[in-house]
Write a structure and sequence with these properties.
about 250 residues, alpha/beta, about 25% strand, globular
């Protein structure tokens, strides 16, 4: 077996992967469009580095040597390889994607660059397939708007955070069918599933904004999740919450 194949098969051996849900559990569908999955190349890596993108995001996320980090929707590995360098030999990076071809190319890049602290894993559209209690940070960069079942995806991701762990989202403030998401709607959807917003920053150097969430004290059962209304008028009208919620 080649090293690439071993990386792909072994993934990240840090505990169970599937957050349990009661039999027949149903999650609400998003009340908004979902972007079609686009290219894994958001822009060239040189362009992104010229803006200091990865450095800015890793600084805001307080990535330190020894941390364990997941890169969701890793694609060609722009963040994966830079996170691997940042966390160092004592840290770990799990690169996850639902695109087998992208993971194959990334596996070759990992081997070529001899990144011994990186593993890769195939995810699912409604389940990131992350091991429980494992991550200090989970990165979701320019990909959240492409998730078909965001409430189920976030619900199943919640147990993967280690104590004090947080989720980092970088996205663009524009309609979800145009490869972006309003930050108020983003916050509403995260909070509906059991997260709390802890940091937000408009960041032109990131071609969008930066948001950071932590796990709340409890996570609602799937049937208790209140769907956020996705129209901007509803969000603008919400006084107590960044977007109105409704029972699915």
């Amino acid at each position: 077996m080649t090293r690439i194949a071993a990386i792909a098969l072994l993934g990240f051996a840090l505990g169970a992967c599937d957050a349990p849900a009661e039999p027949g559990a149903r999650f609400p569908a998003p009340d908004r469009p979902v972007s079609e999955i686009g290219s894994n190349q958001f822009s060239t890596e040189d362009q992104r580095d010229s803006r200091g993108e990865a450095q800015t995001v890793m600084d805001l996320a307080e990535i330190e040597p020894g941390m364990t980090v997941a890169d969701i929707g890793a694609g060609n590995g722009y963040y994966t390889v830079r996170l691997a360098e940042r966390v160092g030999e004592g840290g770990r990076v799990l690169a996850q994607d639902i695109d087998r071809d992208a993971l194959s190319r990334l596996g070759q890049r990992i081997e070529r660059q001899r990144l011994e602290n990186v593993s890769i894993r195939l995810g699912e559209t409604a389940n990131p397939k992350l091991p429980d209690n494992s991550f200090d940070r989970i990165f979701m960069v320019h990909m959240y708007h492409e998730i078909e079942s965001p409430y189920e995806f976030l619900w199943r991701m919640w147990p993967a955070l280690d104590e004090g762990g947080q989720v980092v989202v970088v996205d663009i403030d524009r309609p979800t069918d145009q490869h972006g998401i309003d930050p108020l709607l983003l916050s509403c959807e995260f909070e509906a599933v059991g997260y709390e917003l802890v940091a937000f920053k408009d960041a032109p150097e990131l071609a969008g904004y930066y948001a950071q969430f932590k796990a709340a004290a409890t996570r609602p059962a799937p049937g208790e999740i209140e769907r956020c209304r996705g129209d901007r008028a509803a969000m603008d009208a919400g006084a107590q919450h960044p977007a109105k919620k409704e029972k699915a």
